Hints:
Layout: H1 3-29, H2 36-80
Amino acid sequence: MDPEFLAPLIPVVAIIAFAAVKIARIRATRPESLSTDVTARLESLEHGFEGLQQELTETQERLDFAERLLSKAREERRIGG
């Protein structure tokens, strides 16, 4: 291969390899099981997230209803006026 092509390629490969080694080390030192405190906090966050999803769904339904009412009122004014 051409040395002019390889010269910029070597640092790129080195950076990628360095990142891969760092990621592998982080994964190797990470504990497999979570502590009870972390598990409880995670469950609490999941429960809160589910509540927020439900509230968002209800808000979207209300918005759709309001948009339909406004659209219907505009249509009636256009037909009647």
